[in-house]
Design a protein that fits this description.
Elements: E1 2-5, H1 12-28, E2 35-39, E3 44-47, E4 66-69, E5 77-79, E6 83-89, H2 99-116, E7 121-122, E8 130-132, E9 135-145, E10 148-156, H3 189-203, E11 209-210
Parallel strand pairs: 1-2, 1-11, 3-4
Antiparallel strand pairs: 2-6, 3-5, 6-10, 7-8, 8-9, 9-10
Helix pairs in contact: 2-3
């Protein structure tokens, strides 16, 4: 699995273009290596395919924050610096051709990252994502085409959570959004990123190699 790490916040449009190209290439040639891309985004709202735009609520009042409706599942969410975003481009034929299994695997990566820091990550039956003490610290939304994945998960490490106040995150109005920094005030994005990459490789039983080209 090729591992790409971007050290500066990236525009959503740029990262989306990378994903679409990589997915297309791997749909055409199943022998290409899988990819794990880890990054931060500049502030942006994204909506899943067919999501309810009413959940945006007052997001249009925020000057300069883009809104994108894209091909993943799920409702509206918010990305910004301090949030670890993982985009795995995987051919599930090499793992298991089961979307529910894949979603649970992504949750397991997050739960193990949290456990590394002594935080009790939890699943909630019937919902997708991971919670700590009732606060949703990670959102998941994916697209799978011919068993090749794109999009992924967003783990709130130490972001400014104010942007979530203008939306109904993931369409869930009765559960607050949280971050690792609320429990571990000294935590940094930079320290979590390599740990997340290592745990991702372990959960998916893959070897990470430095990304070259793609």
């Amino acid at each position: 699995m090729q591992y790409f790490c971007v050290t500066e916040p990236v525009s959503y449009t740029l990262a989306l273009g990378w994903q679409r190209r990589w997915m297309k290439d791997r749909r055409r040639d199943s022998n290409l290596a899988d990819i794990l891309l880890l990054l931060e985004h500049l502030p942006v709202y994204t909506l899943g395919q067919g999501s309810n735009r009413e959940f945006l609520q007052n997001a249009d009042r925020i000057t300069g924050v883009e809104v994108h409706q894209i091909e993943r599942g799920g409702e509206v969410t918010y990305h910004c610096p301090g949030q670890l975003v993982a985009y795995p481009i995987l051919n599930l034929r090499h793992y298991r051709k089961d979307l529910h299994w894949y979603l649970r695997q992504l949750e397991e990566v997050i739960i193990q990252v949290l456990a590394h820091y002594g935080l009790p990550g939890e699943r909630i039956p019937g919902l997708t994502g991971v919670w700590v003490e009732g606060r949703k610290v990670a959102a998941i939304g994916v697209k799978v085409s011919r068993w090749v994945t794109m999009h992924g998960f967003a783990l709130n490490v130490c972001p400014d959570l104010q942007g979530f106040e203008y939306i109904v995150p993931c369409g869930i109005s009765d559960r607050p959004v949280g971050s690792m920094a609320q429990f571990l005030p000294e935590i940094t994005f930079e320290e979590v990123r390599p740990i997340a990459a290592r745990i991702f490789a372990k959960v998916f039983d893959a070897e990470l190699l430095p990304g070259i080209g793609g």
